[in-house]
Design brief:
Number of helices: 3
Largest sheet: none
Oligomer: single chain
Number of strands: 0
Order of helices and strands: HHH
């Protein structure tokens, strides 16, 4: 492994109390212990979880399909036979 430069690192400061914007070192230690990892790995796991939930996990496409592309898809896709409903789940005749 190559040595990491200071530019690849950040200062991380625990909060004096747990809140919606941070945790105490005690909470981080308890979480790391529960996960079976060290504190640094617990932080990485938390950031990874947030990245998966909040950031797009795919490259942006070219936007919406054009009308011509939609027509091509409809032309090539098998068309379902139209069916009608002959009964109802609801009793519409009596009140």
């Amino acid at each position: 492994m190559a040595a990491r430069s200071l530019a690849d690192q950040i200062a991380f400061r625990y909060r004096p109390a747990d809140s919606t914007t941070g945790v105490t070192r005690d909470t981080a230690k308890r979480l790391a212990e529960r996960l079976g990892v060290d504190e640094t790995q617990a932080i990485h796991l938390a950031l990874h979880d947030m990245a998966v939930r909040l950031l797009p996990q795919y490259e942006a496409d070219d936007g919406p399909l054009t009308a011509a592309q939609v027509r091509q898809i409809k032309k090539r896709a098998p068309q379902a036979k139209k069916k009608s409903v002959r009964s109802s789940l609801f009793d519409v005749g009596s009140t």
